[in-house]
Amino acid sequence: MTTPRFVPLTTYREYPEAEMRLRAAEFYREIGRRRTVRMFAERPVTRDIIETCLRTAGTAPSGANLQPWHFVVVTDPEVKRRVREAAEKEEYEFYHHRAPPEWLEALAPLGTDEHKPYLETAPYLIAVFAKRYGITPGGGRFQHYYVTESVGLAAGFLVAALHYAGLVCLTHTPSPMGFLNDLLARPASEKPFLLLVTGYPAADAQVPDIGKKPLEEIATFV
Ligand SMILES: Cc1cc2nc3c(=O)[nH]c(=O)nc-3n(C[C@H](O)[C@H](O)[C@H](O)COP(=O)(O)O)c2cc1C
């Protein structure tokens, strides 16, 4: 059994209550401006900005700190073309055959369909993979805990970081996404979690006119 080691908590900052209130409100305002964008500019984004946002994602909490995620950053136009081709094929099946009417009704306000031009327009496709289990140096398997929760948190950190940096993204989940393992050469131990289409918005980008539920509806204090 590994013996735990502890270090002093030097990273925590306490703020006076008034400042805390301001900081909470500022963060809410900032993150509240984030929108999922489906119309991208072709404008490039410098790679180091994406790298820093990925480092932010890597700071997320995870079950037993096993950090069961891997990010594949796609910029190669030919790989993007293949991702688009495969995604549009699955999405055609989804919109025309697989999706139950109720799901299509829920998607209707977003105006989405099987056409995914942004998979080629946007400068970055960040494929987030969930490592379902770990592999030891000897090739054996070891258990990962709370994989979905952990990768969801890391993806949330990444979405927030990209927004904070001044970029936009689309959380894309072509269904099913198994083709990403083949196209991006990831092992069977990893499951595609979502694809974050990332870049600048098109100059004339529009977003669906939708809102968020009020606090009273999403929270209960007991
Ligand atoms: C897990 C998840 C999967 C999503 N999948 C898709 C998708 O495949 N295609 C798409 O256009 N939007 C997708 N979205 C984006 C949602 O439609 C969007 O977040 C929602 O409409 C709210 O809009 P907002 O992000 O601008 O607040 C997904 C979002 C999440 C969290």
Number of continuous helical runs: 8
The H-and-E topology, N to C, reads as: HHEHHHEEEHEHEH
Q: Which range best describes the helical content: under 10%, 10-25%, 25-40%, 40-55%, 55-70% or over 70%? A: 25-40%
Secondary structure class reads alpha+beta
Main sheet, how many strands, which sense, barrel?
4 strands, antiparallel
Model regions low in confidence, pLDDT < 50 over at least 5 residues: none
Distance between the termini: 39 Å
Strand residues, percent: 15-25%
What is the radius of gyration computed over CA atoms, rounded to a whole number of angstroms?
20 Å
Shape: globular
Count of β-strands: 6
The average pLDDT score comes to 97
Q: In what order do the strands lie side by side in the largest sheet?
A: 1-2-6-5
User: Ligands in the structure?
Assistant: flavin mononucleotide
Characterise the protein shown here.
This protein is of the alpha+beta class. Helices cover about 40% and strands about 15% of the residues. The chain contains 8 helices and 6 strands, in the order H-H-E-H-H-H-E-E-E-H-E-H-E-H. The chain has helices at about 15-30, 45-55, 75-100, 100-105, 120, 145-165, 180-185, 215-220, and strands spanning about 70-75, 125-130, 135, 140-145, 170, 190-200. The chain has a 4-stranded antiparallel beta sheet with strand order 1-2-6-5. A two-stranded antiparallel ribbon has the order 3-4. Strand 3 (about 135) and strand 4 (about 140-145) form a beta hairpin. The longest helix has 22 residues, at about 75-100. The N and C termini lie far apart (about 40 Å). The relative contact order is 0.21. The mean pLDDT is about 95. The chain binds flavin mononucleotide. Flavin mononucleotide binds near residues 171 and 207.
